[in-house]
C-alpha cells in the first residue's frame, strides 16, 4: 500500500490541537494503519518461518515500503491528529530504521545491492531488533489518543529455518 495524500500540511512544529475527536482519530488509525500493519507483520513472520528465501525477500520489501508510508502518514494532521513532537520524531526514526533493515534483507535474499544471501541470518536478527523498536514506537504514538496497539514481537531472536542460504 502506498498512500498519496494531497496537500503539504504536517504536524511538524504544530501545537497538538486537533480538528476532530479522539474517536475519529482512533478509528482512522485502526482502519488505516494498525490493522493493515498487523496483517503485514504476520505475513512477514510467516515468510520467515517458511524459510523460503524469495518469500522472505518479497515480504521484507513490501513491509519496508509500507513502514515508510506509515511513518509519513502519522505526520498528516487530518488522518490521526497532532500530538507530542518528540514521540512523532521517535516514531519516524524507528520506522525509517526498520524499513532500512528490511531493504537490506530484501536485497540480500536476491544477492543484490552489494548484499549476499549468506548475510540473511544476521540481517533477520538485525531487523528483529528494529521491528520491536518500531512497533513500540507506533504503540507509544497511538497511546496518545487511545489508538489500537500492535502486538510487540517477542524478544527472542528469530531463527532462520533453511539451509539454503
Automatic annotation (TrEMBL):
<protein>
    <submittedName>
        <fullName>Uncharacterized protein</fullName>
    </submittedName>
</protein>
Amino acid at each position: 500500500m502506498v498512500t498519496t495524500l494531497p496537500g503539504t500540511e504536517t504536524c511538524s512544529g504544530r501545537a497538538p490541537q486537533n480538528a476532530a475527536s479522539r474517536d475519529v482519530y482512533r478509528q482512522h488509525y485502526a482502519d488505516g494503519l494498525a490493522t493493515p500493519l498487523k496483517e503485514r507483520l504476520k505475513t512477514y513472520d510467516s515468510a520467515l518461518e517458511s524459510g523460503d528465501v524469495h518469500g522472505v525477500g518479497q515480504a521484507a520489501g513490501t513491509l519496508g515500503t509500507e513502514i515508510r508510508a506509515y511513518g509519513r502518514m502519522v505526520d498528516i494532521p487530518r488522518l490521526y491528529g497532532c500530538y507530542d513532537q518528540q514521540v512523532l520524531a521517535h516514531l519516524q526514526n524507528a520506522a525509517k530504521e526498520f524499513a532500512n533493515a528490511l531493504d537490506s534483507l530484501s536485497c540480500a535474499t536476491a544477492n543484490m545491492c552489494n548484499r549476499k544471501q549468506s548475510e540473511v541470518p544476521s540481517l533477520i536478527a538485525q531487523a528483529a531488533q528494529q521491528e520491536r523498536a518500531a512497533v513500540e514506537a507506533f504503540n507509544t504514538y497511538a497511546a496518545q489518543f487511545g489508538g489500537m496497539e500492535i502486538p510487540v514481537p517477542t524478544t527472542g531472536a528469530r531463527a532462520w529455518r533453511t539451509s539454503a542460504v
